[in-house]
Amino acid sequence: MQKAHHPELGEIALTEVMGALSDPIRVGLVRVLADGRERGWGQLRAPVAKSTLSHHLRVLRDAGLTRTRQEGTRCYVTLRRDDLQARFPGLLQVVLSAMEIDDVGSQVGLRDGADP
Amino acid sequence: MQKAHHPELGEIALTEVMGALSDPIRVGLVRVLADGRERGWGQLRAPVAKSTLSHHLRVLRDAGLTRTRQEGTRCYVTLRRDDLQARFPGLLQVVLSAMEIDDVGSQVGLRDGADP
DNA sequence: TTCGATGTTCGTGAAACGTCGAACAAGCTA
DNA sequence: TAGCTTGTTCGACGTTTCACGAACATCGAA
After folding, report:
1. What CATH class does B9-102 carry?
2. DSSP for chain A?
3. How many CB atoms are located within 10 Å of the residue A110 CB?
4. How do residues A60-104 score in pLDDT, each as one tens digit?
């Protein structure tokens, strides 16, 4: 496990963000993280193999949507709300609303036992 | 040339919209159409072969972002601003702003002679 | 009717994507 | 030390995407 790359604020590209949000699993992950709380990798529940989940989290990270922090063998993920707001004002908010409207990504959630 | 399929308002899917906006050429096309005016196919200028341009316009159409109208052998394209606003309020506006910020899609424009 | 202009469709190829299981690396724990 | 847990990485596979030129269909003009 090596240190993950996170794009700087100014490096966040719109087309990458859009591409990252073009997959239901990833949209679901963003929805789960939408409340701004940090979540452990293990708390995330998605109907894919763990290698696939790792891949999707990487895409989100590379696009600048999330930040991953490592602690021992565990990882914690957060949505980069402030950075996104600074880079593309209003985008995240509106996209989160759109996710609700379309109810996309609802197959992703938190493992039982995670606090709401 | 057969009649193109346009998704209904309620059929417009967020992930498809996002996917459609994950390509610089298509973002550029949306920017060109952002003022709400109808544009002829021939007015559009993009650094790709015409078959490729046709492909991109199809992706935009299938995603519900644009509407294509046929008149004789010519096609006219418009952005479905009202439909998008109804389906995902605020999304288009915010994305258009983000396009400006990132200056993505500026390689696409109008052919000389088209009124601003 | 013949010609030219206009887009779409087809065939192709290269690249990217989503998915999986297996293998791996790194750090706790016993 | 050995073993377990956690997540990443590595092929492999099939699908999708983007790109092009060529062929085609359709309509208007000559």
Report:
1. mainly alpha
2. --PPP---GGG--HHHHHHHTTSHHHHHHHHHHTT---EEGGGEE-SS-HHHHHHHHHHHHHHTSEEEEEETTEEEEEE-HHHHHHHSTTHHHHHHHHHHHHTTTTT-EE-TT---
3. 14
4. 999 999 999 999 999 999 999 999 999 999 999 999 999 999 999
Q: Domains of chain B: which residue ranges?
A: 9-102
With CA atoms as reference, the chain A residue closest to B105 would be: A15
Helices and strands in chain B, H and E counts? 5, 5
The predicted complex's ipTM stands at 0.94
Q: What is the pLDDT of residues B47-82, one digit of tens each?
A: 999 999 999 999 999 999 999 999 999 999 999 999
Nearest CA in chain A to B101: A88
Class of the A12-102 domain?
Answer: mainly alpha
Task: Say which of A23, A27, A88 has its CB closest to residue B98.
Answer: A88
